[in-house]
Amino acid sequence: MRVAMIGTGYVGLVSGACFADFGHDVVCIDKDPSKIERLNAGGIPIYEPGLDVLVANNVKAGRLSFTIEAAEAVKGADAVFIAVGTPSRRGDGHADLSYVYAAAEEIAGLIEGFTVIVTKSTVPVGTGDEIEKIIKAKRPDAQFAVVSNPEFLREGAAIEDFKHPDRVVVGLEDERARPVMAELYRPLFLNETPMVFTGRRTSELIKYAANAFLAMKITFINEMADLCEAVGADVQQVAKGIGLDKRIGGKFLNAGPGYGGSCFPKDTLALVKTAQDYGAPTRLIETTVQVNDARKKAMAGKVAASLSNDLAGKTVGVLGLTFKPNTDDMRDAPALDIIPALQAQGATVQAYDPEGAHEAQHMLKDVAFKTDAYDAAQGADVLVIITEWDQFRALDFDRLKGAMKTPVLVDLRNIYKPEDVTSKGFKYASIGRK
Predict the structure, then answer these.
(1) Helix 264-277 × helix 283-305 angle, to 10°
(2) Interval 116-141 mean pLDDT
(3) What is the average pLDDT value for the chain, to the nearest integer?
(4) What residues have CB less than 8 Å from 248, skipping those under 6 apart?
(5) Cα separation, 12 vs 78, whole angstroms
(6) Strand 367-369 relative to strand 348-352: parallel, antiparallel, unpaired?
(7) What is the pLDDT of residue 91?
(8) Is residue 2 exposed (0-12), middle (13-18) or buried (19+ Cβ within 10 Å)?
(9) CATH fold of 201-434, please?
(10) Percent with pLDDT over 70 in the chain
(11) For 2-198, which CATH class?
């Protein structure tokens, strides 16, 4: 099939490359000439394991191309995907749909013959209806169907998630779109991937409901971690004990400094706002947002406590800046709250991240960016693990101890056993454990 993908950000680029790998002819379109130039030169504007090879292979095979000109790609497409950003709108927290609606306006003037227009971007309930109105207003003669097809990609594992998903959700109101969407995802039938066909508004809500539930699960175990610290229990054993219950499951029960990233913060907030607009407030999600925001800021207090609540003139080494490992994404990363809070208490911060330093330099002030974990530990009064990159899981503690001014480790991801660290002569603090 012929596919046009509007947007070459995280979702658009991964989805376009994977559809091409399924055998479809895909053209990815973006308004940013520098991004398209970089892609055509073989560069990848985001860090995602395996994406560079996937893109290169499909470009070489002639199934994947990149352009700033939408006309030819959209005119010849069986399906046009809208995969543009929907950031939180400044001032009110609603999803900013200006890029989605601009894409719809452009698509309306270009489609020829029956075309399925697919919203891949995360959008509030009713957005598909508005897209349909925009296109009908501009092109009353156009033959098209608007479909919701939300993405469920985890950064760092996006290719695996696309090719081996738990499910594919398709929301439609026009049955002509069903065979087109089924053909697009036909390679997944071999894996017996569940295809959930539903109404368009239901599909739009499924995406938000899924992210909100996972965000609540993370926030729940973080609050249990605080309780564990107060009563002398172990949150990891609590998580294991409840996670073995099949009704609960063990995923997303890892206590830490709070959730971040490109999805959970903006999607929970957008769902809260949508629910309020419809007079059906979501109190659990409202509380989740508030608790998570407060938690990220509070993590600086745990670091301060490791140095007798006195950070003035102290040097803090930070390991990990991105919101999770295997990505360069800094959006709403806990580090963006923790580091300024440390600096406000008089600390000097030096940090290392395997992939996120370039983005972090634009978002953090007065931070010395280091070349590796041991460089970040050099002369530090305390070392803080914020992101659980694999390379931080087997640190040489003798080498760290020799580099640091005082051997203090604050592990905000619980990647070490307390006894293993203290046996090396370190003072050790973690989340929800003695």
Answers:
(1) 150
(2) 97
(3) 97
(4) 242
(5) 17
(6) parallel
(7) 73
(8) middle
(9) Rossmann fold (3.40.50)
(10) 100
(11) alpha beta
Closest alpha carbon to 224 in 256, 268, 250, 251: 256
Q: Which residues contact 61 (CB under 8 A, 6 or more apart)?
A: 20
The full set of domain ranges for the chain reads 2-198, 201-434
Helix axes 200-231, 235-243, angle to 10 degrees: 140
pLDDT value for 190 = 85
Instruction: Give the pair of three-digit tokens for residue 423.
Output: 């046996």
Residue with tokens 């109404």: 199
* The two three-digit tokens of residue 265, written as one number: 């913060």
For 322, the token pair is 């991105």
Tokens standing for residue 216 = 């609540």
Distance CA 349, CA 303 (A): 12
- Residues with catalytic function: 263
Q: Would you place residue 92 in the very low, low, confident or very high pLDDT band (cuts 50, 70, 90)?
A: confident
pLDDT tens profile 264-323: 999 999 999 999 999 999 999 999 999 999 999 999 999 999 999 999 999 999 999 999
Amino acid identity, residue 257?
P
Query: How many angstroms separate the CA atoms of 322 and 330, rounded?
Result: 5
